[in-house]
Specification:
There is one protein chain. Helices cover about 50% and strands about 10% of the residues. It is α/β, with parallel strands linked by helices and about 280 residues long. The chain has eleven helices and seven strands. The N and C termini lie far apart (about 55 Å). It folds into two domains: about 160 residues, Glutaredoxin, CATH 3.40.30.10; about 80 residues, Serine Threonine Protein Phosphatase 5, Tetratricopeptide repeat, CATH 1.25.40.10. The protein has a five-stranded mixed β-sheet. A two-stranded antiparallel sheet has the order 1-2.
Length: about 280
């Protein structure tokens, strides 16, 4: 018996998710959440050497990235969006890259992302080995006491939202217990309408990341038809902005913000388009 259209769609979504979510495991094999980290001074790509972390900031964020890697470019772009959302907050932002990469190539990558952060050079990949980093890119978040508060491997779905929420926990703006609601869209649930809408939005975001705007719009609209969500409205607005259609995107961002006033993509898009 041939599987139903719904079942075929379910398998398609599961296969897609399996390809974009990292395997479970520790991002830093030599460091655990809650552990105090050393604070090495590293040479900077531009300017004098700098410490990796800051005791004066409420949170320090460092990202290990690698040129010529799409996921690293996407991670830096997501961090740039988070920086805009949290502008003015006491956060130290740092990029870390192996000293073997050409300086001009690293500068161009950061400039393209829009991220505002110094880039420190990991000479001989010593810090990479010290922490036991498993993959590029990966983000570490450290609190005021220089304790590792969280780490996140890059993922194509919900990376921006999860890192933003992790930071808000460290800043005291969000409770740790509330993280479950942020992580929930990344989990398979019980087949309810809300679950179906999340799966369809997940696929829409993946298609948009891969550059397929038409299909991304199609799946985002399917998600909205099941259960309206801030994320789906924001994604449709983001696609329109990328196509130079800010006036058409504004009502979508406004619809997203009515559902979730803190939706980061909608906040950023509305601010840009309302100018």
């Amino acid at each position: 018996m041939r599987p139903s259209c719904r079942h075929r769609t379910g398998w398609l979504l599961l296969a897609a998710l399996a390809s974009i979510f990292p395997r479970p495991g520790r991002a830093f094999s030599n460091a655990t959440v809650g552990e105090a980290l050393e604070n090495p001074t590293l040479p900077a790509l531009d300017g004098p050497p700098q410490e990796l972390l800051s005791r004066g900031a409420t949170a320090s964020v460092f990202v290990f990235f690698r040129p010529r890697q799409d996921h690293s470019q996407d991670a830096l772009t997501d961090l740039a969006a988070i920086q805009k959302t949290l502008r003015g907050k006491p956060i130290r932002w740092v990029g870390v890259v192996s000293d073997g990469w050409p300086a001009d190539e690293v500068r161009a990558m950061v400039r393209q992302s829009g991220a505002d952060l110094p880039v420190l050079l990991d000479v001989g990949d010593r810090l990479y080995g010290k922490l036991g980093v498993r993959l590029h890119p990966v983000v570490g978040i450290v609190d005021r006491q220089l304790r590792l508060a969280a780490y996140e491997h890059f993922r194509q779905i919900n990376f921006r939202e999860i890192v933003l929420a992790r930071l808000r926990v460290v800043l005291g703006e969000l409770k740790e217990a509330d993280m479950a609601a942020v992580l929930e869209p990344a989990k398979a649930t019980d087949g309810s309408p809300a679950d179906e809408a999340r799966r369809e939005l997940t696929l829409a975001r993946m298609l948009w990341k891969k550059g397929n705007a038409g299909k991304a719009v199609e799946w985002a609209r399917k998600s909205l038809a099941v259960v309206p969500s801030a994320g789906a409205y924001a994604l449709l607005g983001e696609i329109l902005v990328a196509q130079g259609q800010c006036p058409a995107a504004l009502p979508l961002f406004e619809a997203a913000l009515k559902i979730d006033p803190a939706e980061p993509v909608a906040l950023q898009g509305h601010q840009a388009c309302a100018r």
